[in-house]
Amino acid sequence: MNALATPPNARAPIDLAVIGGYLGAGKTTVINHLLEAPHGKRIAVLVNDFGAVNIDGRLIRARSDDVIELDNGCICCTIGGALADALARLAAREERPDLLLIEASGVSDPARIAQVGLLNGAFRLTAVLVVVDAPEFVRTLVDPLVGAMAQQQIDSASAVIVTKLDLVAPESRERAVSDVRALAATDIVVAADHGRVPPALLFDASVPQTLALADARRWQHQPIGTGSSAFPSFASVTLAVPEVLDKARLRAWLKALPRTILRAKGFVRVADAEGGVSTRVCQVAARRLRMTPPTLGEHATGGGDGVLVFIGFIDSETELNLRDGLLACRQTARHVAAH
Predict the structure, then answer these.
(1) In this structure, is residue 296 part of a structural domain?
(2) Which domain holds residue 45?
């Protein structure tokens, strides 16, 4: 069978994003602003509220016509089977959404929810966003009952959103964002503007650049003290990949991307250990890597050049390192010539 062939009924995966964070952090507000943004995407929202009445689902329903509610418990434990069933029903729709946005309850682990979602091959992880309440996060983390859980939520994030900074003294706001960054496993930490966040946290090159990176400077991290270098702005870098890459080296390099990279995606031609060359779709999000054959709903490069898009806090030095790292993944000229 041709390595580039695809099953006749294959459909492009549905993007999947999980939004988590401790109780009262502001997840619903962030989601509502994302729904209102002029991105032109069809978004389904799956909401789980801890309790018999799903309040978050009612609040979000006013902004979206496609809300799936799961009640009575932790989405990844008590009703894990219900989550899997909901995902299966969504994937089977004739008209599927472009993005499924899962709001996790405040007492659940977003990483485990993402893992459940990825068990269904119809979904492709885009982001794990964790919302942190600036005035309360320190007290939450030192709480002997919930501190470890709240830290686990932050550890799972591909991006952390800091909310309610308007309730913090102006001279302490930059320090609050810096303190969150010091506790996170990612350097993608952004300050929400009354719940508004950069659309590029979820939407990448498929959204017009003028929208995805609009007002990027608003989200730029400013230095705390004099003499510090400003943190780079949110940006996207597209790199052409005209050569065949070594699959093992590429996998290792993508798994070790810097903490400032939120997401990477694209098409490349790779050579495996047996010498076969095939096209693969690469997706990196929340420190998870997937390399799969292209489906009929995804534009494959065929025998032409590949391309990879990187999104995150990217300055000129980071871009240069990405270029050099990609070059180091090339298959040797002698091996390619032999096949």
Answers:
(1) yes
(2) 14-219
Give the position of tokens 């070594």.
246
Whether residue 276 sits in one domain with residue 140: no
CATH classification at residue 207: 3.40.50.300
Same domain, 20 and 152: yes
Q: What is the per-residue burial (b if ≥16 Cβ within 10 Å, else e) of 312-325? A: bbbeeebeeebeeb
Q: Which residues, 6+ apart, have CB-to-CB distance to 137 below 8 Å? A: 22, 150, 180
**Domain count of the chain?**
2
pLDDT digits (tens, 9 = 90+) for 280-312: 989 898 888 989 888 765 554 444 678 998 988
Same domain flag for 211 and 240: no
CB atoms within 10 A of CB 89: 10
Residue type, 12: A
Alpha carbon 232 to its chain centroid, in Å, reads 19
In angstroms, rounded to a whole number, what is the distance separating the alpha carbons of residues 72 and 108?
12
Instruction: Give residue-wise pLDDT tens across range 49-90.
Output: 533 333 344 444 444 444 554 443 333 334 457 778 888 888
3-class secondary structure per residue, the chain:
CCCCCCCCCCCCCEEEEEEECCCCCCHHHHHHHHHHCCCCCCEEEEEECCCCCCHHHHHHHCCCCCEEEECCCCCCCCCHHHHHHHHHHHHCCCCCCCEEEEECCCCCCHHHHHHHHHCCCCEEEEEEEEEEECCCHHHHHHCCCCHHHHHHHHHCCCEEEEECHHHCCHHHHHHHHHHHHHHCCCCCEEECECCECCHHHCCCCCCCHHHHCCCHHHHCCCCCCCCCCCCCCEEEEEEEECCCEEHHHHHHHHHCCCCCEEEEEEEEEEECCCCCEEEEEEEEECCEEEEECCCCCCCCCCCCCEEEEEEEECCHHHHHHHHHHHHCCECCHHHHHHC
Angle subtended by helix axes 147-155 and 173-183, to nearest 10: 80
pTM value is 0.77
Q: What are phi and psi of 104, to 5 degrees?
A: -80, 150
